[in-house]
Structures are given as C-alpha cells and as structure tokens.
Amino acid sequence: MLEQLPLAAIGAIGTPGLLALAVYLVLTGRIVPRSTLEDVKAGLVEQLTFWRTTAQKKDHTIELLSEANRILADETGASVTKVMGAIQDKAGVHDG
Fold it and tell me: Which keywords has UniProt assigned to this entry (predicted)?
C-alpha cells in the first residue's frame, strides 16, 4: 500500500495527514506496536522450547525402547535355542 503513495503527496498532506495515515495503518493491522510483536515472539519462543523438550524426551524414549527390544531379542533367541536343544535331547536327535 505504501508503495502506491507518491513521495510528493506525502509532503503535500502534512503532519496531520501523516498522523492519520499512521493511525489508519495501526488500526488495520499493517503496523503493529513493538510490545505486541515482542509478546508474539515470546509466545513463539515458549512454544519452540516446549517442542524441543518434547522431541528430546521422545528421542530418549526411543533409545530406551530400542535397547529393550535388542535385549529381548537376544534373550528370546537364547531361550529358543535352549528349548529346541532340550526337545532334541528328549527326542534323542543329535546333530552330527
């Protein structure tokens, strides 16, 4: 919108005109007060901090679950080997 105003017209409208233009721009939301901008920025920083913390917790949980799955897979494999060996012993089947 401001690009459409010729510079000569700004000088012609004077101080009251510039004040009216500034009020109009603030009321229509094209210019926001610094305090509003800082409030929005603080809210975004707070959200960013929350999501970073959440992502770190998620990553830690994934690491714990991955380690638990590895341990369970190792133990399950060892148990299956023992059970199959016991079954073969009972059946009288030997490798060889």
Answer: Membrane, Transmembrane, Transmembrane helix
